[in-house]
Amino acid sequence: MLAGAASMGGVAAYVWYDAWLRRRTLDRLRAEHTVDDEGVAWQPVAFPPRYRTLPGVAGALVAAGLVLAGWPLVYVLAFAVMTGVLALLVEEYIAERRVIGIEQQLAEAIDLIVGALRAGAALLGAFEATARETDAPLRTYLEEITGRIRLGDDPDEAMRELADRVPLETFRLFALTLAVHWEAGGSLAATLSTVGRTIRDRIELTRRVAAQSVESKVSSIGVLGITYAIAFVAWRTSPGPFEAFVSGDIGSLLVSAAIVLQAIGLLWMDRLSRIRF
Questions:
Q1: Between 163 and 11, where is the model more confident?
Q2: Residues 78, 256: contact at Cβ < 8 Å?
Q3: Does the pLDDT of residue 25 top 70, yes or no?
Q4: How many of the other CB atoms lie within 10 Å of CB of 56?
Q5: Which residues, listed in sequence order, are joined to residue 34 by a DSSP beta bridge?
Q6: CA separation for the pair 230, 200 (Å, rounded)
Q7: For 53, which DSSP code?
Q8: Beta carbons of 95 and 48 less than 8 angstroms apart
Q9: Which residues, at least 6 apart from 192, have a Cβ–Cβ distance to it below 8 Å?
Q10: Residue 175 contacts residue 109 (beta carbons within 8 Å)
Q11: How confident is the model at residue 80 (pLDDT cuts 50, 70, 90)?
Q12: How far apart are the first and last CA of the chain?
């Protein structure tokens, strides 16, 4: 059993490392659509990078550790589920923060482009000047666009690929605006100024929704904390009956079911607090 648990943990760690290494390699290539030896096309990694295997790996590692410690199987499964849900929520939170950050960078970059255009600069020159003043990760995408256009690539194709690599509504709007301008012309400064205000309004609305959902999230965390605090007090008050309950068949099933329901509740609360607009 111990050897099996150790093998499971090793396999999970290897799978996660292999996926992480492949993702980093594809991200560094930053190439156009290519076809591998088997004729299968792939696209560059989109922003933000997601670590989909992290919840499964975290749950497997916790399960392997508990098995090595000799815990009952029901507790192993329950804590593995809870760990996987917590890792999923943390991974989604990090991705959301990255999305808000790059959208804020895009709004600021649009203001710089509009200022350069109104000062008489050409569009490509405004892009290059904005790229020099912008930090990562947006700077990489702007530099790639300007480099490809100067090398003779189609601007419309470059903007479409930007929308594919950063599949956010704000970037689709930005890319569509520039693509239409390159095809039809017109006053780009006024149009981009409107796009910038729209992006800032979306960011403000997203932050208001996040602020409104903080109360429910804190309440959920408080309920979970109170549950484990009561369990600790019960154990300190009557350790014998408490240990007999959690080590029995019925008690272990009830406690494990409660932990799994807590994990489901956390995931449900997180989904209810999300908004799509």
A1: 163
A2: yes
A3: no
A4: 16
A5: 42
A6: 45
A7: T
A8: yes
A9: 110, 113, 114, 117, 177
A10: no
A11: very high
A12: 49
- Which among 82, 76, 88 has a CA at the least distance from the CA of 8? 76
Q: What is the model's pTM?
A: 0.72
CA torsion through residues 54, 59, 63, 65, sign = positive
Q: What secondary structure, in 3-state letters, does 190-228 show?
A: HHHHHHHHHHHHHHHHHHHHHHHHHHHHHHHHHHHHHHH
Nearest CA among 53, 43, 47, 48 for reference residue 21 = 53
Per DSSP, what are the bridge partners of residue 20? Answer: none
- Provide the b/e sequence for 83-110 (b: ≥16 CB within 10 Å): bbbbbbbebeeeeeeebeebbebbbbbb
pLDDT digits (tens, 9 = 90+) for 109-119: 888 888 888 88
Which residues have CB under 8 Å from 10's CB, separation 6+? Answer: none
Contacts of residues 112-117 at CB distance under 8 Å and 24 or more positions apart, as own/partner, are: 113/192, 114/189, 114/192, 114/193, 114/196, 117/188, 117/189, 117/192
Closest CA to 65 of 51, 85, 79, 84: 79
> Residue 259 to residues 74, 232, 244: CA-CA distances in angstroms?
10, 15, 18
Dihedral class, residue 248 (left if φ above 0, else alpha if ψ from -120 to 50, else beta): beta
Closest CA to 100 of 90, 92, 110: 92
